[in-house]
Each structure stands twice: as C-alpha cells, then as structure tokens.
Design goal:
20% of the residues lie in helices and 24% in strands. It has 267 residues and is α+β, with helices and mostly antiparallel strands. Strands 1, 2, 3, 4, 5, 6, 7 and 8 form an eight-stranded antiparallel beta sheet that branches. Strand 3 and strand 4 (62-69) form a beta hairpin. The longest helix has 41 residues, at 128-168.
C-alpha cells in the first residue's frame, strides 16, 4: 500500500485524500453465476457484514479505495484496500469497480492485499448522491491521468522530433513551429458572408400546418343596449320531414284574480 510519501527513482509521490464517505455498507459477494453481471438483491441487503467508512486517496496514477470499520477508531488500519490503477496499460476501471446491474448505489470492488491476492467485496450506499460522488471522484481521477499520459506522449514526440531535426539540420525554432498552438486568440472578429449587413426584406412568417377540425362560427358580441341578437350566429339544420315535434307548449293561465298573494290572504 502506498505511504503518504514514496521515494522511487528519486521521485517523491504525495498522497491526496479526494473523498471521505462517513457511512457505507460492506457485503459478501457470491460467485458470479450470470454473464450479465452482479445483482445486489442476491447479497442480503438487510444484513450487511459491516458498516464502514471509505476514503478515496490518490497517489500518482493510482487511486486507492480504503475501507475502514466505522465502529473502530480512526487510527485503526484499513480492513481492505482496492487500488484503481489508471496508468498506461492498466485494466479498465469497470473491471476494478464494477456497478451492479439492478441498482445505482451498489458496487463490487476488487480488493488486493500486500501479496497481490484478490478478493471481491460488495459496497453500498444509503443515498444516491453519495454513490454519485463516489463514481464521479473515480471518473475525474481517471480523466486527469489520461491527460497526463497524452501530455507525456506529446513531450516525447517533441524530444524525438528535436533529436531527428538536429541530425537533419533543423533548428529549434523549426521544431517549435511544428508544435505551434493553433487555438484562437481572443479577441477575434469573424465577418459573415455578404458583409454582414442585415437584409431589408422582412422575413416570411413561418406557417405550421395542423389539422384544426371543423370551423365553428362564433356569435357576435351583444349591442351596446345589452340585448342579445335574436338569431343565433350558429345556423342549425332544418328538421327533417319525418321528425315529430315533441315540444309541448304550456297551458294558458286560468281566468281569475292575478294577485299572487290571494291564497295567503284567504288562509
């Protein structure tokens, strides 16, 4: 396991703690029976083997996931370590930190001891945000290592080009010109074709074809006097000859006193 400060070929490598997760759950992972992948539902999620604390530590091109027992002191050594190597020729990250197929909060870690022996351990989180931080930290570290690899390759190519150019009579300026930065330098003005003058012709209105269905005539607004038009604006079809009028008119009022309060007075 890497120490906080390593000395290899006069190169000092420092560790950097990238993420600390205060609560995680550790499970025993059964043997993989399907080629699709691991399933967290087979682990017995209700009874984890241990409640742990995780630390993600980067050193050089290795990201190490350290699993600690949460119930013990912080000075206690890690229970297990999962090194994720991101250098050139390293195995894929998914083969070291493998997400399960039935959840976004559980992973299978390929842990390794000092003798390079391997063991697979299941790790799960209560919240999806914690699982996202876990995955994003690993992805960011991998992207950083990839950029460093590309930069090292470009430096070697430049050195090789300089050495070959010296034999061919090229100067250092010629070599630097081949690796000239071609990115745009601000500020830059780009002119549109035609002088960039706006057109005097108005733009045509964009029509969108659609099926509006039958058109219904709306009634006109009432006049200022407040009376509504006698005839409806929506013309009704005439009744057929065979259709009978089922509307009965109200009977005429009987003759007599039209006083509405007569019955109450007589009572």
């Amino acid at each position: 396991a890497p120490s906080p400060e390593q000395q290899e070929d006069d190169v000092v490598v420092f560790e950097q703690r990238l993420l600390t997760i205060g609560e995680a759950y550790v499970y025993k992972v059964p043997k993989l029976r399907q080629a699709v992948g691991h399933r967290a539902e087979d682990w017995g999620l209700a009874s984890p083997s241990m409640t742990a604390r995780l630390e993600l530590v980067g050193a050089g091109d290795v990201l190490e996931i350290r699993i600690f027992d949460k119930d013990k002191e912080s000075s206690t050594p890690a229970v297990a370590r999962c090194p994720v190597r991101c250098g050139a020729g390293a195995p894929s990250v998914d083969s070291i930190v493998d997400p399960v197929v039935d959840s976004s909060r559980y992973f299978v870690l390929r842990c390794e001891d000092a003798r390079k022996r391997h063991a697979y351990v299941g790790v799960g989180f209560r919240e999806r945000d914690t699982a996202y931080d876990f995955k994003a930290t690993i992805a960011d570290f991998k992207a950083k290592c990839d950029r460093e690899i590309l930069a090292a390759q470009a430096a070697k190519e430049r050195e090789k080009r300089a050495a070959d150019g010296a034999l061919a009579g090229e100067t250092a300026a010629d070599v630097e010109e081949a690796f000239e930065d071609l990115s745009l330098k601000a500020p830059i003005k780009i002119k549109a074709p035609g002088g960039g003058q706006p057109s005097s012709r108005p733009a045509a209105a964009k029509t969108v074809p659609y099926d509006s269905g039958p058109i219904t005539k709306l009634a006109p607004p009432p006049p200022k006097g407040g009376a509504r038009p006698a005839k409806s604006a929506v013309e009704q079809p005439p009744p057929s000859a065979t259709e009978k009028d089922t509307t009965t008119s109200a009977p005429p009022a009987p003759p007599g006193d039209d006083d509405d309060f007569g019955d109450f007075e007589s009572a």
